[in-house]
Amino acid sequence: MSILRVFIAVDIEDPLIISRLDRVKDALVSTGVPMKVVESYNMHLTLRFIGEVSRGVVDSISRALSRLEFKEFTIVLRGLGAFPNSLNPRVVWVGVGEGADKLIMLRGSVEKLLKPLSIPPEREEFTPHLTLARIKGSRGISSLVKLLNEYSEFEFGAVRVNSVRLKKSTLTSKGPIYETLLEVKAL
To answer: How far is CA 28 from the centre of its chain?
Structure first.
């Protein structure tokens, strides 16, 4: 039986926004802090990470997700931050300003569809964000903290949320390879 690693996401594909994100990633790398940045072609907002499940469960998720109904809306990507916090950054992210409430409602709709499938709930509360980098060490961390403060209110731009995708993630030594298994378009 094949096992797939899957998640549900909104992909970021606007070339102008991607270029702004790339410039900030370059600035992050220039701090000298050891990190792994997310590739431009992998930029997304995760609505729900599911993890490793059987092909049968993935088929059930696809059937459930195909019933998702939502109207297109706009979100604004704004601000740079870090988990668990900006003084001890492990993950650097871009936040969601306007439209975050609609993204949270969309996530709630996804959860309702998944609930009958007995998929364990996530431990963390949903915080809409786009991961830019994963920090691998603390060398030069003060430069990174300074950069996080500089970009804390930076606006990257508006994104139309007009589809949700079920994605397969194949982990490789060069980073993950994502493949869209199902796309649900807005009404």
So the answer is: 18
Question: 25 catalytic, yes or no?
Answer: no
Three-class secondary structure of residue 71 per DSSP: coil
If you count them, how many residues does the chain have? Answer: 187
Model confidence pLDDT, tens digit, residues 117-169: 989 888 888 999 999 999 999 898 999 999 999 999 999 999 999 999 999 99
Intervals of the chain under pLDDT 70: 1
Torsion angle of the four alpha carbons 130, 136, 140, 144, in this order, in degrees rounded to the nearest 10: 10
Domains of the chain: 3-185 (3.90.1140.10)
Among this protein's residues, is 129 annotated catalytic? yes
Q: What is the pLDDT of residue 50?
A: 96
DSSP characters over 26-69: HHHHHTT--EEEPPGGG-EEEEEEEEEEEHHHHHHHHHHHTT--
Q: How many CB atoms lie within 10 A of CB 2?
A: 7
Of residues 44, 48, 78, 167, which has the active-site annotation? 44
